[in-house]
Amino acid sequence: GAVAKITSGGTPSRSIPTYWGGDVPWVSTGEIDFNTILKTKENITAEGVQHSSARVFPKGTVLMAMFGQGVTRGKVATLGVDAAFNQACVAIVPKDGLPTRYLYQYLAHRYPHIRALANTGSQANLNAALIRGLDLVVPEPLEAEAIGTLGDTFDQTTLCIRRLIRARRKLKRGLLQLLLTGERRFPEFRGQPWVERRVGDVLQETSRLVEWNDDELYRLASIRRGSRGLFDRGTLYGRDIKVKKLHTIREGDFLISHIQAAYGAMGTVPAEFDGAKVSDMYSILTPKEPGCIDMRFVNYLSQRKEMRHLAYLSSNGFFAERLRLNFDPHDFLNRKILLPPTVEEQTRIADTLETLDRELQLLTDLHEALKEQKKGLMQQLLTGKVRMPASMLKEVAHA
Asked: Model-level pTM?
């Protein structure tokens, strides 16, 4: 409270149409997300500002969400335009020359602590008094400006990487449609039409039943919905496992969950899960003959809604507490899919999509690494444990 003024927002009455649909941006709580707000979903009119509790704050103002379920309350944003905001938010305006960007970086870094300050109840909320009571280490203005600039640089970099990730994901969605339907072909494969085949012509169900031993450790695996891959369920001794019928999975197997197949719980087994165990509520599919199909191509096919629909058609529904679907692998093997006529084309397609997946993983890893690096650095700088070097202070002074 000693270094910033906190002002609540206000919402013009919804019952007065002339207050809404104007040219003044109006920020709702959900639009505050550690971002710079340049455009809002709703606008209010000058009349709405004049005759209600709404106030317009200038570009550069820091906003914080006071209310909101989940992770919303405690989030901050900076106005990129002059705007008003609803009563569930507050404007936090620094005093005595404290740089706005330093204040923003401080509040963003302290987000987990700020959320913990919320009142208890059916919906925990923050209030202005709690925010005023926060302790803040205030360096000299030049150093505060440098810290804020450094934090902003990290934020801009991670924002660029997020945009690249979104663009690559969009590209992948497009390529899944084009390459996995034969709509787009590589030049060397044109003129050879795709063929409709029974799944059972290229894949077969495989059983690798585990020889049970109560004293043996078994690594258990499951597969996520939405074609999001396998996950580890832990390692247990046989005597601690209730279901005694397990199967061993191998790298390259195509794994399908009987209960959740229609929701996309299917995909190939990566190398790191080779040798893990699954229950008999999974089907393991392998090539019917060596080299007859590229299993990576099958994995990418399973990421399309058409494959999930086939799994749905091969499932029987029954009611218990909720509707459940039980996958029938024999029916699924009789379903038909469209395939490239040669394994070579399947491999070329899989190679292309795999390269894109590797790029996505590298970008995701870089994004997470930068977030962690910023978090650690801000922890040191915002508490004064580490001071900004003189060379950077000079750069800020001359900027």
From this structure: 0.83
